[in-house]
Amino acid sequence: MQRRLVVTVAILALITGAAAGCKKKSEEQAQPPQSVVSTAKPATSTAPPAPSATGLTGEQLFKQHCAVCHPNGGNTITPSKTLSAKAMADRSKITKPEDIVKIMRNPGPGMNKFDEGMISNDDAKKIGQYILATFP
Prior knowledge:
Oligomer: single chain
CATH superfamily of the domain at 56-136: Cytochrome c-like domain
Order of helices and strands: HHHHH
Number of strands: 0
Shape: globular
Helix content: 40-55%
Low-confidence stretches: 16-40
C-alpha cells in the first residue's frame, strides 16, 4: 500500500512539473542538439543564424523556453493571442524584437516572467528575432 502511494505521488509530481511548462529550466539541463534543422524563414543573408552568448540560436532558445506554451506560434493559455507578427502588431503594436523582450520581462496574466537571470538580453532578443521571422 505504501509503495503504491509513493508511486502515485511520483507520477503526480511528474505531471505537475510537465504542466508548469514555461517555468525556468534547470541550469544543469543539457542543451538541445546543435543539429536541429531550422524551420525559420531564411534571413536576407544565406548565413545560418548566429548563436547567442549561450551558443544557442533563436530557434533553439524558443524551443527551450517558449514552445511549450506557444507551439507553432500559437498560445495554449490564451488562444486568441498568437505569436503571429501581424496579430501582435495589430493587437499590441509589437513590431520589433525589443518589443517582445519587454513582454518577456513584464508579461500579462497567464505568462511567466523571464527576467535577465533566466534569459539574457542577448538570448531574449534572439527569441524575438526568431518569432518575428518565423510566425508572419
